[in-house]
Each structure stands twice: as C-alpha cells, then as structure tokens.
Specification:
The protein has 10 helices and 17 strands. It is of the alpha/beta class and 393 residues long. The chain has an 8-stranded mixed β-sheet with strand order 6-7-5-4-8-9-12-11, with helices on both faces. It has a 5-stranded parallel β-sheet with strand order 15-14-13-16-17, sandwiched between helices. α2 crosses α3. The longest helix has 23 residues. The two termini are 33 Å apart. The structure holds zinc ion. The site of zinc ion has 8 residues, from loops.
Length: 393
Amino acid sequence: MSSATSPSPPALTQCPGCGGSSLGGSLFLAAQPVILNYRFGSAQEAQNVPRRDLHLRECNSCGLVFNAILDAAAIPYDERYENRQNFSAGFLGMLRDTADSLTGKYLAGGGTVLEVGCGKGDFLQILCRRAQAQGLGYDTSCEHPGPTEDGRITFFQRYVTPEDVAGKLDLIICRHVVEHVPQIGDFMRLLHGISEAGGGAPVYIETPALEWIVEHQAFWDVFYEHCNYFPVNNLRRLAELAGFEVLDHRLIFGGQYQALEIRPAPGGKTAHPGQEPVPGQLETLSGALSASRREVTEKLAQAGAAGGWAIWGAGAKGVSLGNALTDSPPAFVIDSNPSKQGMFLPGTGIRVIAPESPEVKTIPVILVANSNYLPEISATLASLGCQPKLLPL
Ligand SMILES: [Zn+2]
C-alpha cells in the first residue's frame, strides 16, 4: 500500500440506488484513510494507509446519500479486515436476540441460512447453533473457507451469485454489507436473484440508519468504507425497486441500526410503496459537522484531557474519532477484541491496548466511541480498580 492520496474517479452524476440524476447536498472530506477496520502491525504501516477524498451527495429522488467519487478498488477486504464487535457482552446479547427473533419467524424447523458478507462468520455460527440450522457463508475476508468442524456451516472466501444457490433457502442474511457496496441498486437486485434461486427466501438486512448520524451530528460515523448512508425510507424504497415487499422494518441498537426483513413481491411488484424520502438530510449533517467536532474537542479539554486521554473502541467509530481529533491525539485506544490489541490504527498509527493494560490505570480521561457500551465499560473499569473520567458521545 502507498500513502499518497491518489486522484479520485470522475464524480457520479446518477444515483447508484435508483438511477435518478437530480442530486443535492454536499459533504467533502479530503484525504480519508480508505480503510478503518484493518489490522496493521506497525505504526508506520498504519500511517501509510492509502487515502482518498470523499464527497457525499444525496439523491433527490430516493434519498440515498452516497460517495460520488468512490474508488472501490482502493479498499482491501481481505483476511486482515476485522470488524467484529462481539467481544462485548452487550453486543453479543443483541446478536443472540436478533438470532432468536429470526429463528422464531423463519427457522422454526431448522432449515438452511445463506449469509451474504458473513465476515468471520460469528453471527452465522450463533444463528445456526441456536436455530439448529445449516449455514452457507460468503465473504472475501473469511479466514477459514470450507466446512466447520461440526459440519453445520460451510464458508466460502468469495462473493456469492444466484448460480451458487443449489437448493431451497429458508433465510438470507445480509448484515452491515449494503453500506459498503458501490452499485447498491444492482446489489439489491442480486439479493433478489439469490432469494428467488432459493425459492423466494426472506432476506434480513441490517445497516446503520442515517437519521441517527444526523441527529447526533456524528462526524465519526462518516468514513470511506461506508459509501452509502441509508435514511430508513430509502432502504425500504431500494428494496421495493428491486422487486421485494417489506415484511418488517424497525430501528435497533438504540436507533443506530435499522433492520429490514423483505421477500420477493408476487409478480415482482410491490403493492404498498414506501413513504417518500425526507430531503435535505445531507445538508443538515454537513452544516453541523465542524461545530460537532469543536464541541467534542471542548468537552475533552474541560474534562482535563491535557493530562492525557484515550479512546475506548477500536472499531470504525473509534478509529474515525482518532483521525478527526488530530490536534491533540489520544495516547492510545482501548479495545476488548484480542485480535486488535497490539495493532495500530489506520491513519494515526495509534496503538490499541487491552483494558487490563497497566497504562489504562493512569489515564485521566477516556472518550467512549459508542455510548451503547458505556455501562459495560464502566463496569470493566471499576472491576480493574480504575476511575478515569468517562466521556460518552
Ligand atoms: Zn436515488
């Protein structure tokens, strides 16, 4: 990888979701690290991560917010890509709840689940174990292709197509994938094709909700890996345009994520089209970002961060915060994921350490990248005898 910011491709003039050509809003961020969920073994290597400019636009027809100058080939989704969050008891609990809800609705008799973009396969393992189901997992960042020891799941280190589907599917899972896919309209039609090939299986999609980012002025939630930002009405609409009908759609994880359950509509047409998009979300977000960044900096200063501070969470939010707050950077980042500990954050080259590390005991201020984990983090620190000031966002 080279550290230079390469020129961006020509800007898209049409929405990759619906094909609409009326675009509004604008949010430009220069020289962003192309990847955040990536393990670098040295600070130098981490600082040399490739960078690209990012330019978000909003489709006036469907409401999709997307990076119009994405260089998709620059993002390496290989084995060193690591975005697991399930080292947190709270997150694991949410995964189990999701698995049980899906089991009750679609896998009461076991059956076969296919996951599009399964990552390292943790959710598929939880779901298949709890549902007594068989699993097929596809992801280019998958580490152990082939059948699992118990023979319950087979992993494939590649993308999936409808031609791969050999028999009836009972459920298709697609978690935290659609925000990474450049041609999202085509991808929704691909999901439709996979579902049809599996006999019309329901599809579960989970992805961040743009409304939460706008409401919380979450500048740390805008980053290069995410080329799409879906308002809730938009995700629904893109599914309907691809020939799906909506079975269920709800906000989860304190409103940060949306969960959409769909299946192919009879005759490919949806009888109840979704609501219209709410325009101007991107404008609201771009107008608020500098003030929001200033606010976090002031909050840190008031808490005494001059004496040293750290970030809790080396996921995308934490890495993004580290890169946005470079004026007085954190001393280190704390994360409970063992495969991130000892690694260095893309862009800043800041070190990731374990909660049990001695340095954690002496740091006066910790910025919590995702406030959903605040109770858990407080409890961990208390059990370690640490009393830093915790700043939730
Ligand atoms: Zn559109």
